[in-house]
Amino acid sequence: MLDPNNLPEVEGTELLARYVVYSNHFRSDLTPKPDLFIPHLHQELAVTCHRNATTAEIWGAGLQVATQR
Description:
mainly alpha; two-stranded antiparallel sheet; 26% helix; globular
């Protein structure tokens, strides 16, 4: 399980996830708009790291993000 109090530095080759919670970030055909791929102003808040996380944990984190929004 991910421990938010003990996170290592993100490596340059590491896979990351970004949670998209606003429908206006998508076109009518549900493809993402280009601005989703521009780095967020607060980079430490924009993504989560996949390291040592299960798929269920990654989706669970996304659900928490969406619920808090």
